[in-house]
Amino acid sequence: MTQPVSQAYLRPGSDRPVAETEVKRSRFIACAARVPDEDAARAFLAEIRAGFADARHHCSAYILHVDGANPVERSSDDGEPAGTAGQPMLEVLRGSGLQDVAVVVVRYFGGVKLGTGGLVRAYQDATRAVLEDVTVMRREPRDVWVLEVNHAEAGKIEAELRARGLDVEASYGPTVTLTLTVAAGEDPGDVVREISAGTLEVVRDGSHWDDVKAG
Fold it and tell me: Impact N-terminal domain: which residues (predicted)?
């Protein structure tokens, strides 16, 4: 049976950048973070709200990856006029291509009203500013396969697999277990059968995600 193939996507690294912009004496402090789920997103918002408790607004937006489905998207204007903060921030996040990302923009009112258009631009510019400092990672699905080899053949088989560009780890017991990590959807069975003259079979043993710096 064919296994469903998960899709790679972009998300922030573990750093949590902060960027500040100013518009007509109002200060906009944008904070970004990687958030794997809604609990983490809410916790990040609560952390920023507590850290800037004297600010008038703590507007937010986040996008979460859902494997095999559309991303989860949420935003909040937090007291700003409807549609002037959270949704514009969310549009910038969509344009970035990032998922598992949250941005909170804290506003300290400077005494001058910015108007609807001014608020939209200010919150979008603040979001763009902090995203410029985000380390972008490519999150890639990987499949794990294993095969059992006797000690006499293990070195040769491992060397042949590495020569074919496969990621191999060996663990030693009564036999040698070779663990192969490949791109999601890739089946190393043909390679294993070829180098072992059909005497060995490889078995799928789950999957995981790897983060690799993009670009």
Answer: 24-131
Give Cβ neighbours of residue 189 (< 8 Å, ≥ 6 apart): 201, 202
Query: Token digits for 109?
Result: 């009112």
Boundary-marking domain end, from 109, 134, 159: 134
Residue 121 in domain: yes
Contacts of residue 209, defined as CB under 8 A and 6 or more positions apart, other chains included, come to: 6, 139, 140, 141, 142
Rounded CA gap, 62 and 150, in Å? 51
Task: Give the residue numbers spanning the domain of 182.
Answer: 138-213
pLDDT band at 133 (very low <50, low <70, confident <90, very high): very high
Residues 182 and 186: their CA atoms lie apart, in Å, by 6
Residue 135 has pLDDT above 70, yes or no: yes
Whether residues 13 and 108 fall in one domain: yes
CA 107, CA 85: separation in Å to the nearest integer?
10
- Among the candidates 110, 134, 158, a domain finishes at 134
CA–CA dist 161, 163 (Å, integer): 5
Q: Please give the sequence-ordered ranges of beta strands (E in DSSP) within the chain, or none if there are none.
A: 9-12, 18-23, 26-34, 57-64, 72-76, 101-108, 136-149, 167-172, 176-183, 203-213
* pLDDT tens digits, 61-120: 999 999 889 999 999 999 999 999 999 999 999 999 999 999 999 999 998 999 999 999
Domain match, 128 and 142 both: no
Same domain? 102 vs 142: no
